[in-house]
Amino acid sequence: MQSAMFLALQHNQMERSDSNCQSHEEKKGKMKKTLIKDWKSRLSYFLQNSSGSPKAKDNKKGQQKAIRPSPEEAQLWSEAFDELLANKYGLAAFRAFLKSEFCEENIDFWLACEDFKKTKSPQKLTSKAKKIYSDFIEKEAPKEINIDFQTKNSIAQNLQEATHACFNAAQKRVYSLMENNAYPRFLESEFYQELCKKPQISREPQGT
User: Tens digits of per-residue pLDDT, 62-109?
Assistant: First the structure.
């Protein structure tokens, strides 16, 4: 009798354990789906504003829509950081990832510098330099980046006669930070792993 009761009790405990495991897996699956959905929402926003330039808002109609890369194309991003930044979809995905980690100021600064270096008018160069300085460089700037005092001081001194090389040192520093820290984490993220997955092809049994 006692043996039967013990077996019944053990059986109930095993059922509860299986139920708990299943519940944990379900929660984990839901969290993953929510995370990826959130990523896609951010990615959609960044794809619409992908150039990082004010001109992007004026040329939306003329811009080509970024197409989701194939798994093979996405895997190329892991070969070099430049491969990721050179791809419109990859850049938007990386920005979305940094946004999720609350450190998007680095990629925003890098993009602002890329746009700055393409500026031809000396007047616009100076005004853009001041804008970048107030947004990213000065103390307590809204998107202040992590660079040393000497680099900050050098930029401040060159603002009145800004050149295309004005932010080079700071841009290299930020690029290095992203390449060595955020980039490896991006490659390990759920969203990037999802992009690299090859779609499963369901094969129907052939008739004889």
Answer: 444 568 899 999 999 999 999 999 999 999 999 999 999 898 999 999
User: Is-contact 167 156, C-beta < 8 A?
Assistant: no
Instruction: Report pLDDT digits (tens) over 175-186.
Output: 999 999 999 999
What's the token pair of residue 71? 């798994």
Given this model, what pLDDT does residue 59 score?
Answer: 45
* Torsion 35-102-115-58 (CA) sign: positive
Q: Concatenated DSSP letters for 154-206?
A: HHHHHSTT--TTTTHHHHHHHHHHIIIIIHHHHHHSHHHHHHHPPPPPPPPPP
What's the one-letter identity of residue 106?
Answer: N
Nearest to 168 by CA among 184, 147, 138: 147
How many Å apart are CA 94 and CA 55, to the nearest integer?
21
Place of tokens 């779609």: 199
119 and 110 Cβ atoms separated by less than 8 Å: no
| Nearest partner of 46 among 87, 74, 9, judged by Cα | 87
Q: Which of 155, 98, 99 is nearest to 132 (CA)?
A: 155
pTM of the shown model: 0.71
CA–CA separation, 20 vs 164, rounded Å? 60
User: What are the structure tokens assigned to 19, written together?
Assistant: 């139920």
